[in-house]
Predict the 3D structure of the following.
Amino acid sequence: MTARKTSHRARRALSITVGAVLTALIVLGWVFVNWATRRLKVAEAMGCLSSLKCALDGFATDFNGEYPSAETAALVTGRAARLESSNDYLRQLFLAGETQSESIFWVKHSRVTSGRPDDSITTGGRIDASEILQPGDCHWAYVSGQFNTSHRDRPILLDPFVPGTTAFDQELWDGKVLAITIGGSPGKTSMVCPVTASGRELLDDAGRDLLSPNSEPWRDSGLDPLKLLKQPEPPRDAAE
């Protein structure tokens, strides 16, 4: 009887051990899959930023070094334009023939984008500005008023603030912010992290806040990067 009890206890202990090991393996597998998925999303977003940087540099080459602005909008469209959001500025890349892909402006799970853009930018076979980068089609914020000769460490494209706030989304990239600088070469994107829990500061590898007028890239320029920062236009029905 004692031997049977011992054997039963041993089998039970073995079952518990096997169950614990399987549970641990399942948890580790879930953690790995989740990590790999998030890394893939970051890689995809970085690829979009690199493609956009190529389009921006091509645009600047054609417009005397100037990135999309009110002045270049008048040249591209032939009339004065009202520019408020990053959608408005970046739409010029299509009108100037630098890109035809709306998908590179879009990020899944972004708080300012809706369903993936359909890349339909023409009406009757001609480019239609009203079809390009509609609200919810663009994730990236844009730092306006710059040239390809401006300080190479200034950001040109970056993640937007959470709509209705002046802070970056802390959840999208696990507390980090994706950005590309004027001097960033295609394929090289900087990953920077807000310095405080509020997410209002953007640090580079040297610990400089790239959105501070007192940081090296902006010092003595007389410019306030936060005033140049144009947020994307979220979907019309986005929650406040």
Notes: The first helix runs from residue 2 to 62. Residues 2-230 form one domain.
